[in-house]
Write a structure and sequence with these properties.
about 20% strand; 1 helix; single chain; alpha+beta
């Protein structure tokens, strides 16, 4: 089981890095990945472009 970590306060706005990951810089100086899948991030950015499965 993964160790529970304490929440980190973001210091920067959300940034999409060169790898297509949605990230932010925390108060501890580390960059955190929120969405690591570039394809998923693109779908989240353009939900109206998704075709309906009906």
């Amino acid at each position: 089981m993964a160790e529970t970590s304490r929440p980190v306060t973001p210091l920067t706005a959300l940034v999409v890095n060169a790898d297509g990951q949605l990230t932010y810089m925390g108060q501890d100086g580390q960059r955190y990945v929120i969405v690591g899948d570039a394809e998923l991030l693109e779908r989240l950015r353009h939900p109206s472009d998704m075709s309906e499965a009906d």
